[in-house]
Amino acid sequence: MPPRKAPEKDGAKPKAKKDKGEKKPSAPAADFDAFEEAKTVIIVPANQLELTQKEMDEEITKQLTANNPNAPANIARYNTKEREYKFEPMIDQLVMHFASDGYLLHRESDAAKQQLQLEAMEAEAIEEYERAVAGLPKKAKAGEEGEGGEGGDDADADNNDDDDAPREPVDDSKALRNQFNFSERAAQTVNNPTRERQSATEPPPSQQFTASATQWEMYDAYMEDQLRVAIQRDMIKKQKQREKEAEEAEEAGEPPPKKKEEPKPPPKEKKPEMMAGVPMTRAVKVMERMVNQNSYDDIAQDFKYWEDQSDRFREGEGTLLPLWKFYNERAKRRHVTAIAWNPTYHDLFAVGYGSFDFVKQMSGLICCYSLKNPSHPEYTFTTDSGVMCLDFHPHHPSLLAVGLYDGSVMVYDVRNKVNRPIRQCTVKTGKHTDPVWQVKWQDQDLSERSLNFCSVSSDGRVTTWTMSKSELVHEDLMELKLVTADADDDADALGSLAGGCCFDFNKAQDHLFVVGTEEGHVHKCSKAYNSQYLETYVGHNMAVYSVQWNPFHQKAFLSASADWSVKLWEHNSSRPLMSFDLNNAVGDVAWSPLNSTSFAAVTSDGKVHVYDLDINKHEPICEQKIVRKAKLTKVAFNPEHPVLLVGDDRGCVTCLKLSPNLRKGGAEPERMETLVDTALKGEQA
What we know:
Elements: E1 4-7, E2 40-43, H1 53-57, E3 76-79, E4 84-87, H2 110-134, H3 142-147, H4 152-162, H5 215-252, H6 278-295, H7 297-305, E5 320-326, E6 335-341, E7 348-354, E8 364-370, E9 379-383, E10 387-392, E11 399-404, E12 409-413, E13 423-424, E14 436-441, E15 452-457, E16 461-467, E17 472-479, H8 487-492, E18 500-505, E19 512-517, E20 521-526, E21 535-538, E22 544-549, E23 556-561, E24 565-570, E25 578-581, E26 586-591, E27 598-603, E28 607-612, E29 622-625, E30 632-637, E31 643-648, E32 653-658, H9 669-684
Antiparallel strand pairs: 1-2, 3-4, 5-32, 6-7, 7-8, 8-9, 10-11, 11-12, 12-13, 14-15, 15-16, 16-17, 18-19, 19-20, 20-21, 22-23, 23-24, 24-25, 26-27, 27-28, 28-29, 30-31, 31-32
């Protein structure tokens, strides 16, 4: 800031700049000279910043812009064309600091000329009024002076004569306009109230259309146009030739020639439509999967690479990471009654929808989902009755066996586009009379050409179905007879059958299978002996919902029941080796295909329990709640990837990934055999 210069006041002595370390001398008052020239003294404020000469010589450039710093930069307005809010790119930067309405008019403007004319007329009227009041004659206009030139003397004489005569009062009512003498009339009418009428209409439907014009499309269109022009030219030429022949025949007096029938052009070969057909369908399906993979990119990355790092710091515990949720609007208010992985395509699985509430039965639904497209099922089939179970063929991945609530069994080919099974049983062909709870394909021998599967129902029959050329041929493997403790009850239950709920065939001995019943008993049966049970395992008090053989150990199997327990059995022992209480009804149980000693179970409180008997025989290594207000009904492990599926009673299927601690161990059957032998020795002791 430059120092200020201030002149001294008159009568005051100029102050000299005070140097550092020097005292100011005092001057006597007698030395004051009033006529001395005023001097300037530099006054430096006490708080002024002291700068060096280099700093004072430095130039600081500041750029001024016309933008308003207080103008908003995030104004959003609704765009009716695109139906969304968009930011306004242009912001008004004008700021009005002072505005005043002026009353000046340009002299050359029409309003100024009109105002000057009115002022002149008003001044003329005032002048005439003053002359009339003073008794002076009216001022003659320019035209009147010329006309009365000759008689001017006579007029003056007459005026002089009239000066002495009394004068009449002058009527000044019209001299000035509405100055004093005026009257005002007004009338007041009733103003009708204003009304606003408006109506809201729906916007007209809009449709976007886009097309791409490629070089070959332009060439094809050009060639078609040239062909059309050539055909039209030939038609015009033939028409002129026929008219000429008709005129010549008319001149010669001959009848007009008959019109020759032209050969029809050969039909054009239809080009394959680009937007339809198998190649386009496959390309669209691949594109849809790519879009879904981008939409669920974080989940896809977790499926591929997620590893829970906390497992390194806790032994014997693991977690389940929820990945995708598979849900279809058509499956609303339906229960997930069955889940089956495809044995060939490990990303494909089928879900059956029905109802476990037997009072509220509805139609069934089958959806085939893929992990590559979680938003929509790949295949969908509907049934007249609720679906209760399903299973893929181990060697023909397109064949799907289905059991229904009304006792029907059917076979679908998922490759077909029609919503119709390729085989279906009827009442004449041995249809079950009660719901079919489980179906299972049989491994096909080389000697057998026909395909067959087995089913179990509440009517007490275990039936095998063979696919013939046009129908399903049935054969009863076993009739489940009631087993009672008293002899009197045996006589009463002689003609009644036990309701079967589940069954499973041994992986090593395919003729051996176990069946779970509604009474809580588990029976070991054989295809060779259909008259009696090989063994009966008594341990559950309520219905057994699932039995499953261990895939690595041919002697051990699991059973899950509604009495809140899961039991491990050795088929040569009638007593359970281990029992696990889960504190809720168990809906399903499944062995892990990656670990010989691990299995998972789901309960009605929405929890998944994962056990590893090699780590802990008493407590689950993972107990995790998956759904809040729903019951879990089914569970299924993927045969290749470390994921499992769980279904609930609201039609939703959730995919879960196992943490590293849940997939430790291996597929060695020796580990399971050691556990079974240890349990048997403890039981014998």
